[in-house]
Design brief:
Layout: E1 4-9, H1 17-31, E2 35-40, H2 69-78, E3 81-87, H3 95-103, H4 105-108, E4 120-126, H5 136-149, E5 152-159, H6 172-182
Parallel strand pairs: 1-2, 1-3, 3-4, 4-5
Helix pairs in contact: 1-6
Bound molecules: flavin mononucleotide (FMN).
Residues 11, 13, 16-19, 87-91, 126-129, 134, 162-163, 165 line the site of flavin mononucleotide.
Length: 184
Amino acid sequence: MTKNILILNGSPRHNGNTSRLVEEFTKGAEKAGHKVTAFNIQQMNIHPCLGCLGGGKDPDSPCVQKDDMLKIYPLFEKADILVFATPLYYWTITAQLKMAIDRLFAVQEKTSNYAMPMQHCVMLMAAEGDTDDNFEAVKHYYHALLRHLGWENIKEIYAGGVMKIGDIEGHPALEEAYILGSGI
Ligand SMILES: Cc1cc2nc3c(=O)[nH]c(=O)nc-3n(C[C@H](O)[C@H](O)[C@H](O)COP(=O)(O)O)c2cc1C
């Protein structure tokens, strides 16, 4: 069955290591016949959540801020799979990705019980460090997020040991990302 896959890429380097993971995942998923849409948050006009709790009134435009999140909301609501792609920045996801995730709250505000559309999630991450404990904090965050929203984890790929653009070439995580996409 064809799946709608939404990728939120929080790397500010559009041709960086995270984007290579996204590319390989996308190649695999498209070969398997899925529909993939990837957004690079850095290249969009998206602002942080205002915490106004005033969203959800207009179902087609749930946030009070009218920026490029309006391109993401409809795809988010019909996505079968949500992919978070980000470098590790100070032991967590980038501000770019966090900003987009916070803004998804406006979708929850559409219902009185703050219902969130069901998602099956993937995490794709690049980082300079290459030890298991390097990823502990972000794994904790990712799993807490999914647990609280009732979302399911499909798989996480952590590509450690990559710092400069291009460092990821030849890294086994690229093939892992392709295989993940093609088998999804
Ligand atoms: C501001 C900043 C913070 C970073 N923090 C970490 C970190 O906490 N741990 C780590 O292993 N790498 C850290 N890195 C390295 C990046 O995760 C690494 O360069 C990654 O490959 C960048 O991915 P990109 O090419 O998609 O931008 C940091 C890089 C920057 C610029």
